[in-house]
Amino acid sequence: MLPNIDKLNSPKLRIEQYIGMKVKRTRVEQGLKIIDVARIAGLSQGMVSKIENAQVSTSLDTLGRLCDALGLTLATLFSDYDRPEGGAQLTRAGEGMEVVRQGTDKGHRYELLSYHRGKRKSYEPFLVTMDDASEVFPTFSHSGQEFLYILEGRIVYRHGNHLYEMGPGDSLSFEAEIPHGPEELIEVPIKMISVINYDESLD
């Protein structure tokens, strides 16, 4: 049975435990027996077994020979050790936070897809939905830059004095301080991703 990958990535493991699990996992994945690895590395079976079971601290020379026998580099051996824990916000389909924005009273639905962003608001991603009850409202104006990506439906979108007819797969990016918004809803329902990227100077 292979060592649990979660244990390999755990920062609580002692270095000997980590090495032992990583060596054993690599050996088992390659279909090798301890006797095979020991012979190729020029080590005793007992030493290899003790390393795998975290019963001994190994010298770099011994560790290097063991890695050579397994086809590993030392860098690869330690690639998962002390890795930052990380953490990301997963938003499931339909679970975004519905929020009120300028177009809400015109029948535009805004679903905020990310809302745990730390101390500074650097960007906002929305799923925007418009149906046959929605109205055009080409008077948005706010700081930053905006990126639109059409998922469904067809729309004529205005940015300043320019009109852009867009359908699924089309995207548009622009300075958001210039008045912009839907000019004509050609085919509803319309669903689009809107990502607003704010200037670094903004809090």
List the helices and strands and how they pair.
Elements lengths: L4 H4 L6 H15 L4 H8 L3 H8 L7 H11 L3 H4 L19 E3 L9 E4 L10 E8 L14 E15 L2 E5 L4 E5 L4 E18 L6
Antiparallel strand pairs: 1-2, 2-3, 3-7, 4-5, 4-6, 4-7
Helix pairs in contact: 3-4, 3-5
Structural commentary:
With 203 residues, the chain is an alpha+beta fold. It has two domains: 5-77, 434 Repressor (Amino-terminal Domain); 97-197, Jelly Rolls. 25% of the residues lie in helices and 29% in strands. It has six helices and seven strands, in the order H-H-H-H-H-H-E-E-E-E-E-E-E. The protein has helices at residues 5-8, 15-29, 34-41, 45-52, 60-70, 74-77; strands at 97-99, 109-112, 123-130, 145-159, 162-166, 171-175, 180-197. Strands 1, 2, 3, 4, 5, 6 and 7 form a seven-stranded antiparallel sheet that branches. Strand 4 (145-159) and strand 5 form a beta hairpin. Helix 3 (34-41) packs across helix 4 (45-52) and helix 3 (34-41) packs across helix 5 (60-70). The longest helix is centred in the first third of the chain and has 15 residues, at 15-29. Residues 1-11 have low confidence and may be disordered.
Compact overview of the structure:
This protein folds into two domains: about 5-75, lambda repressor-like DNA-binding domains (434 Repressor (Amino-terminal Domain), Orthogonal Bundle); about 95-195, Jelly Rolls (Sandwich), CATH 2.60.120.
Largest sheet: 7 strands, antiparallel
- CATH class membership of the largest domain: Mainly Beta
CATH topology of the largest domain: Jelly Rolls
* CATH architectural name of the largest domain: Sandwich
The secondary-structure element order is HHHHHHEEEEEEE
Strand residue percentage: 25-35%
Low-confidence stretches: 1-11
| Global morphology | rod-shaped
Mean pLDDT: 84
Structural class, from helix and strand content?
alpha+beta
- Tell me the distance between the termini: 51 Å
Q: What is the number of helical segments per DSSP (H or I, 4+ residues)?
A: 6
Q: Could you say how many structural domains there are in total? A: 2
CA-atom Rg in angstroms:
28 Å
Helix content: 10-25%
CATH homologous superfamily grouping of the largest domain: Jelly Rolls
Number of strands: 7
